[in-house]
Amino acid sequence: MSVSTERHVTWRRPEVAPSLLARLFDSKPFLIAICLLPAVGLLLVFLTYPLGLGIWLAFTDTHVGRGGYFVGFENFESLWYDRVFWGAVFYTVFYTGVATVLKFGLGLWLALLLNENLPFKSLLRAIILLPWIVPTVLSAIAFWWMYDAQFSIISYVLVDVLGWRETYIDFLGTPWHARWSLIAANVWRGIPFVAISLLAGLQTISPSLYEAALLDGASSWQRFTRITAPLLMPILAVVLTFSVLFTFTDFQLVYAITRGGPINSTHLMATLAFQRGIPGGQLGEGAAIAVSMIPFLILATMFSYFALARRKWQQGGDDE
């Protein structure tokens, strides 16, 4: 009797160590770096390099058509005694503060109004966006005609139609008239951004909260201060930050309407930096004015972050 045995042989692929490329693509930090590389490259080319070049030019005596030499803080020392520069600093802060307060007051009022059940609500929201959609230069030209000393429609209505005045208003011929006229134009353009952004925040608040407050007998003001304002604070912080930055660095509207006049009374720091650096040819001095804007922008951003975007405020609580 013969016994036959069968031997089963299992074939296995010989283990091969993964290549360096395979190990790299299996590495999470490497994949993160690869994905971020295009964004970092774009930031370096279009943000970091221009900013670094501007800071370097602020410490040189570079002029248009010729290179400059490092002069240290000489440009900033000359700005310290420059009355036009300090006038631009004053008007920039004044312009930003007044325009931001008006935009947020009117924008919040419009947002609350559009949050109600109104007829043609979608159409009204689209119409309110028009000032924001219209190109800045086109709206500046329209305001320039509205503020014209001879053909102003505002003066025509006040003098010829209503008879409230005897003479036309020189909107752009006197310093304070021109300053307030620019603020009015900026507010007109900025209200839609604030209103639509705050309206989006209002849409996220649950109606059940207001219903519960009504059952408890809360007034309209109590519902606003106890429900709307705390829950709207995160959106308010972001919108306020962007509004301050956009207003502080405004250039097109001011330059298209007044070009800094009359007698340099409506210069913002951005328009003065452009005038000194490009038409004036003093690139170093223009860059120094632009660099002087950075501390103000940092302060505005820090205030918005630490004073308005704190986590307990975002949750509707009180800060300790």
From TrEMBL:
Membrane topology field: Multi-pass membrane protein
GO terms, biological process: transmembrane transport
Domain ABC transmembrane type-1: 89-304
Domain of life of the organism encoding this protein: Bacteria
Keywords: Cell membrane, Membrane, Transmembrane, Transmembrane helix, Transport
Transmembrane helix in keyword set: yes
PROSITE patterns: ABC_TM1
Compartments where located: Cell membrane
Family annotation (InterPro entries): MetI-like, MetI-like_sf
SUPFAM superfamilies: MetI-like
GO CC terms of this entry: plasma membrane
Regions that span the bilayer: 30-59, 88-114, 126-147, 190-210, 231-249, 287-308
One Pfam family in the UniProt entry: BPD_transp_1
Keyword Plastid: no
Family membership: Belongs to the binding-protein-dependent transport system permease family.
Stated name of the protein: Sugar ABC transporter permease
Source organism: Teichococcus oryzae
